[in-house]
Design a protein that fits this description.
Length: about 600
Amino acid sequence: MSDRDRDPRAAPRVAIIARQGKFLVAEPFFGAGPRLAISRDKRYDVGDLVELSGASDAGASGTAGSRRKGGSRRPRVLRRLGRPDVARDVISALMLDRGLDGRVDPAVGRSAREASEREVQAEGRRDLSELPTFTIDPVTARDFDDAISAEPTTDGGWRVWVHIADVSFYVPQRSLVDREAYRRATSVYVPGTVEPMLPQSLSNGACSLVPGDVRPTLTVELTIGTRGVRGGSIYRSLIRSDVRLDYDRVDRIFAGSETAAAAWGEPLAAARAAAAALDALRRRRSAVVLQSSEPDFRFDRRGDVVAGEPTTQTESHRLIEHLMIAANEQVAQFLEERKIPTLYRVHERPESVAVDRLIDQLASLGVPTPPVPDGHLSGTQAAEVVSEASSLVAGWVARTGRGGRALNSLVLRALKQAYYSDRNLGHAGLASARYCHFTSPIRRYPDLICHRAVLSAVAGEPVPDAAWVHAAGPWTSDRERRAMTIERDADDIARCFLLAGSLGTGGGGGGGGGTVARTEDVAFDGEVVGLIGAGAFVAFGDAGEYQGLLPVRRLRGDWWELNEQATILVGTRNGGSIRLGDPITVRVARIDAARGRVDLLPADGPAD
């Protein structure tokens, strides 16, 4: 949280330099705030984004008079951040505004570099370095914290080894690096960059399971059959990855357009078959089915966004997902049986009233719904209804080719938010009795807590302090939610710059932060993905990569009201309607890049 979020009168941390008469002023770039007088300096110019020091008083009166009265200290420009018409500069400024400055304390960095040079001993570890092993990650990934080995068994099943980087080997508890990792709690991924939980000498270096190098790991060895996991064990190990695969390449191999190398082709095929069996089991046990996509942005050397396509989940993604879920469940069971303090990933069952509303919403749109028992639903019944509804939604979207984003959003809203807790309350979304996060210790602190809990059992290391683990649950949950908000806002900014660039308006901003681009002559086909009383949120573009708000005040000729289920805007005069999932054609009225906002017009309406 930034200072402005805590106190709207506080001085901004990120500002844009503007001229006011004979003076230079710093205007807040993100949101509202005071306009502050600053000194002239050759390091910056009018129109630059800058980082400011704080001011003791937040009135717009950073004037000589108020300073003589002792009310305000003129803020200083600490550094120039870039220009408001460069996407990468604005995203970096956003991260700074939210408290992420990309810098590591020198002492922490030094400690991390020293730790990265620690020599790995084979004693106490199983040497699996000759076992064919591979990683599968996004093509842009730099930190590889999980690797896979697999082989078929003689009884028609599969043996799968899920190897996870042994981060705790390099990050002792309560060390400088550990304290900083706990403070951050998670890596924050935004377009074009990442604010890592661990210093890069560890995250991209010693801890990363790069091909060809022997690495210390914790291995979850699973025996999998057509009915799921039949058994497993967890131990310390040494592995050497043979190849770094990416999702696109694996999908090409699965499609037959590329051939896998002999060294890892058969293990990949075994992992594929094991994951398919786990997928079938997951569907049978009433896990929630949701389709999602993440934006993948690319930048040029200047820092402009040049491409941004939604990445949808494919078979290669599902392969890794199912094997990681199986490993996480195995670890959670291992720790619960031994009553070792740890953090579980908790996703409580939905409430009955939320399920009733979801069914109401789907029915109002003509989407098939499951039968619902009369009266108040138990937690188990509510979870089963949501699971079946999610499957029906997936089928309806596949048949009609529309409504995926809007309907998945409705399902998500019926669910409670997942969080971390030292109490195991199950994971309703996965229909799992026990679940934890274990497979990403480079980027998530709860995974590191689980590693230390496992090591207390398999390697005789200290048992985590129960009171400390209890306190870590709310802290890491809060930091996760904060990171998600920053990532979402940064994605919105990148989309705005990409849209502005495609329309030839540029991405730049005026004073106060933002682009005002008038482009009413260009029409886009879109789809309604959300509704509020004030208007419709529309995803548009060739792949639905952009999103904006079409206000009802722009829809002339009728008075629009949102129905009780919040799924349809109804025209009260002419009987028209705008429904979730409806196709719609829009034009862009305004792009405010700094706020990640796009205002739309109806394609057939008059320009405002």
